[in-house]
Backbone:
DNA sequence: TATACGATCACCT
DNA sequence: GGTGATCGTATAC
């Protein structure tokens, strides 16, 4: 089931946690690629010095002030892109950075089922965007509709998987934000431990 | 117009 | 542990 706008319109830390275990799905010309989200980070409001919106509204951060459930994609270090999903209410800037995907699989045009791609590991926002061909053309696109990019909950959620995931979430400090003063110590990075 | 630097990654020692 | 690649963005002039 595709995640609806309402899912993203609430507390960013909650959304960051609940995205763990969900599928990120990318539709390309000739195939669909998906993976399970296993690492996220929350960036919340102008008071969060690590959040791009800490400097207020700019052309770049405007998307974070918009409605929830849309993609915020930006270029970093001149060579990589990062994918975020906008959360919370209009005019409150917040988003969840998608950092890692596991169990990458693809559905080819002439096939009926997803096939796991063993060789690929998308551990890191830059690598993830590169493999899924996510760049700034997708900035602002609606994640709550089956277009080029969306998020779906795993089928087993109703059978108790949700509780299992909750028990396996680890919180830690966010990566690469040493400049963010006291905010760098917030435990706003969430990882899904291996369920083995 | 000029400059400094980053929500990264691969490669080096 | 450290560094370079590479360019959009914010900020200073």
Residues:
């Amino acid at each position: 089931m595709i995640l609806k706008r309402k899912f993203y319109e609430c507390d960013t830390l909650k959304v960051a946690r609940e995205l763990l275990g969900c599928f990120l799905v990318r539709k390309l010309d000739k195939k669909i690629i998906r993976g399970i989200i296993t690492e996220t980070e929350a960036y919340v409001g102008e008071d969060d010095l690590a959040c791009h919106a800490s400097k207020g509204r700019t052309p770049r951060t405007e998307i974070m002030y918009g409605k929830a459930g849309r993609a915020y994609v930006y270029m970093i270090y001149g060579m990589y892109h990062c994918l975020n999903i906008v959360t919370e209410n209009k005019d409150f800037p917040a988003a969840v950075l998608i950092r890692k995907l596991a169990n990458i699989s693809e559905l080819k045009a002439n096939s009926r089922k997803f096939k796991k791609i063993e060789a690929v590991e998308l551990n890191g926002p830059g690598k993830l965007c590169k493999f899924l061909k996510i760049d700034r053309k997708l900035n602002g696109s609606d994640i709550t509709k089956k277009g080029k990019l969306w998020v779906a909950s795993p089928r087993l959620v109703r059978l108790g998987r949700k509780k299992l995931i909750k028990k396996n979430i680890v919180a830690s400090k966010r990566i690469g934000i040493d400049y963010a003063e006291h905010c760098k110590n917030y435990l706003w990075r969430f990882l899904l431990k291996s369920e083995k």
Remarks:
- The two ends of chain A are 25 Å apart (CA to CA).
